[in-house]
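In this supplementary section we document a worked example of the pipeline. Step one takes a protein sequence of length 233 as its only input; no multiple sequence alignment statistics are reported here. Step two produces a three-dimensional model, which step three serialises into structure tokens for compact storage. The input and output of this example are shown verbatim.
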Amino acid sequence: MKRLFPSLIAGALLLVGTAWSQDAAIRKNLGERIPQLPQIDEISKSPMPGLYEIRVNGNEIYYTDAEANYLVQGNLIDTRQKRNLTEERIEKLSAIDFDALPFKDAFTIVRGNGKRKLAVFEDPNCGYCKRFEKDLQKVNNVTIYLFLYPILSKDSGEKSKNIWCAKDKARAWQDWMVRDVPPAAASCDSAAIARNVELGRKFRITGTPTLVFADGSRVPGAVGADQVEKRLN
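The serialised model returned by step three reads:
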């Protein structure tokens, strides 16, 4: 038994050394051969033997071989389980800690018992957001945390300020997005809106609407009420 432990330690160190040298070789070869490739965040083995996952820019995925002779951009599919492994990996990497969101910088819309939770980043001048909001009226028993996210135009910022400074933020938002009633001019401390823009940049939210569910998963785009229900459940 005494002889076994040194052997195990030596074996473990060998594996660590091999993994490190593999990592170094891939970084070196890709850096020399494709200098325009963004800085590599992480290299790890993929579920497919001999294929390595290259992660850049936080959640962008590429694949390569042990010597970085080839670089693959695309989806890795598990044909036996019929799973898109790349999509699952990106969703995991893009997850947001829901409970850590700064809800003080959002206003709430509560429907029914409000037990289910959803955060949404939206621009008041976004046509897709308007379509989404009209469909979202069908979803009940939910608390929606609305983060104003004016990224489309200067007027988006002005409308966001008027909505944020309204006596009834939720009403002003619904009036504009669902009933096309423009928000009345208003003024107040609207620093929360600038913080939302910074928060969105941090999470790489590049389009509206973007939905964040209680499990941390996010969905970009104007998805239908049925898809929202499925995610909430």
